[in-house]
Amino acid sequence: MDQKKGRQGKKKQSPEMKEEVQEKEVVKSKGKQQKGAKNAGDNEVKKAEQKIEKQQVVKGEDKKAKQVQQVDSKFELGDGRFSTPTVKLASWNVNGIRAATKREQAVKYLQDTKFDVICLNELKADQAVFDKENLGAQFGKHYFLYLNFCKSKAGYSGVAIASKVKPISVKCDIGISKHDQEGRTLTAEYERFYLVACYVPNAGQKLERLDYRTNEWDVDFQNYLEDLRKKKPTILCGDLNVSHHEIDLANPAGNKKTAGFTQQERDQFTNYLQKGWVDSFRHLHPKEVKYSYFSARNNSRQENKGWRLDYFIINKEATDAIIMSDINTGVEGSDHVPIECEVDLRKL
């Protein structure tokens, strides 16, 4: 290489070489333009796809919101005001609404006008069955009906509230997904109080759900009730699936490892009451032996060998409002019998 020529600049090109270089420059420029156009086109397509996707998401959210609104709007709501100074409440585990309503005595009970509110546990039906068999017609026409069915399994669990007065609000479940699939709670808000209808999970014949029941459900459900009582007096009713003390079942010695009477379940119930809640029946009848559940085997009902599993519980501050709390052993139609309670609204 000529160093002088290299230091001074580029070697002089012939006209032919110049033309070749210009052609290459043009091709290169066109390539860049085409690539840029392609990228711009790709960006436009991508933007369009993102726009469509966003619209689909919005539509999906709108649809979801609409579904939620439909669920919320299925309940007839009102001012939650009772015209009487006291309210008469009943709660009954019917062990299958279809089977129970085939019994004349059960239907008569569900249509009784003396109750302001009747709560039911263990419906064992879904919405389709309930509608198809017109089960709502088995309730008195003076009631507004509110239902929460099991979502995970057909013909399982489920609770209902039949009320003469339209509540201010109605809430299905407790807002925790792992507990909300079986339709176990229904909360009605009235002017002076909350009413919670509940069917507590059974620990199982082999106690396979004992840990879930005591370490998860009981803890979260108790917290839910604590939050309610901060707003207004709260009444819990239903099959709570525990016999608290030995007086609450016919054979305590032989059932210490049976669901409903394990030490873990009893301790959790004790813990709950100690937070400031009152077992209304035991409060009014400290020594009375009376049961709300009788096994279908061994003539349990005839021989009065049962369990007290169903309760009306009220927050301690409202204890003076309890007028009556009892177990109606004269009603047939289920392996449980109804429990009844009367509360003075003026003392809430």
From TrEMBL:
Q: Name one GO biological process term.
A: base-excision repair
Annotated site residue numbers, Interaction with DNA substrate: 336
Query: Tell me, what is one Gene Ontology molecular-function annotation carried by this entry?
Result: phosphoric diester hydrolase activity
Q: Glycoprotein among the record's keywords?
A: no
Q: Residues at site: Transition state stabilizer?
A: 241
Positions with biased composition (Basic residues): 1-12
Locate the region Disordered. 1-59
Q: Which cofactor does it need?
A: Mn(2+); Mg(2+)
Domain of life of the source: Eukaryota
EC number in record: 3.1.11.2, 3.1.21.-
Q: Where is this site: Important for catalytic activity?
A: 310
If you read the UniProt record, what top EC class would you report for this enzyme, in one word?
A: hydrolase
What does the cofactor section's free text say about binding?
A: Probably binds two magnesium or manganese ions per subunit.
Q: Where is the Endonuclease/exonuclease/phosphatase domain?
A: 90-336
Binding of Mg(2+): at which residues? 93, 122, 239, 241, 335-336
Q: Which NCBIfam families match?
A: exoDNase_III (TIGR00195), xth (TIGR00633)
**What keywords tag this UniProt record?**
DNA damage, DNA repair, Hydrolase, Magnesium, Manganese, Metal-binding
Q: Which GO terms describe its cellular component?
A: nucleus
Protein family (similarity comment): Belongs to the DNA repair enzymes AP/ExoA family.
Give me the stretches of Basic and acidic residues compositional bias: 13-28, 41-59
Name of the protein: DNA repair nuclease/redox regulator APEX1
- Catalytic residues, per the record, are 199, 239, 336
